User: What shape does this take?
Amino acid sequence: MTIASEKLSAFLDGELGPEEMSEIERALENDAALQAELEKLMQADVVFKQHFDDMLGDPVPLDLAKAVEGFEAPVIANIPAAPKPRIWMVSASAVVALVVGLSGGFFLGQESAGNAPQTQIAARGWLDDIASYHRVYAAQDRHLVEVPASEAAHIEAWLTSSVGTQVAIPDLSDMGLTFAGGRLLVAADKPVAQLIYTDANGAVVALCSIKTDAPVEGLNARTVGAFDMVSWGAGTANFVLIGDQGRADLLQIAQSLATEA
Assistant: This one.
C-alpha cells in the first residue's frame, strides 16, 4: 500500500489531524485517481459491513446480550470527527471488542464469593422450555394448575411416577407462598414436575424438577424474558425456581429449597 493510500484509509477512519484532513479533502477535489481509490475503499467497506451484519444476525445468548446492552462505553474527548462513510466501522469495532471481551468471562460462568449464585450461559434447553410454559400458565386464573392443592397426596405420587424421581411438595408458607397445585410438563423431551405457588399479590412462583444423571452443582441464576430463574441439582434431579423478573426473595427461597433437598 502506498503512503497516499495509507493516508486515504486513515482519512476515512478519521485518524488524521485537522490539517491533513483538509489537505486530502482539497486533493480529492482535483485528483480523479485519488477519487477512484477512495471509491474502492468505500466499496470494500460496504462489503465488509454486509458480512458483519450477517454475523450480527446470528443468535446471541440472552445474558450476554443484556450485558452488552447494559455496557456504557467511556467518553473520550478530542477525537477528530470522522467522515460519515466509515463511522459505522467505529461502532462495529467496539461491538466486536466488547463481545470478545465479555464472552471470555460469561461463557465460562461467573463465580462470586460466599453463597452467591453462579451466572452460567451454557445452554440449558429445559430451562428455556420452563420459561415458555411459565409465560403461558402464570397468566392463567381458573386453569392455573392441572391438579389442585386439595389433592396434594395424589400430585406427589403422580408426578413421582411420571418424572421418575421423588417429588415432594415443600411448605413455603413461611416465605409467603401458598401451594396452588401441580402440572406435568415436557421439557427437553423429558417429563417435568411443576409445583405452583402464589403470593398475597397473586404473583406466581413455580418449582420444577427433572430427572438427571448429572445434577447441577451450586445455585445458578439466569433471566429468560420476563422471568428470573434459580436452578440447582440434588440426588437424581435438577430443580429450577422461576418467578417474575426482579422478585427480591427468589434467591432466598431457592437457597432454602436447595438446603432441604
In short: The radius of gyration is 27 Å. The domain at 125-260 is CATH 3.30.200.100 (Phosphorylase Kinase; domain 1).
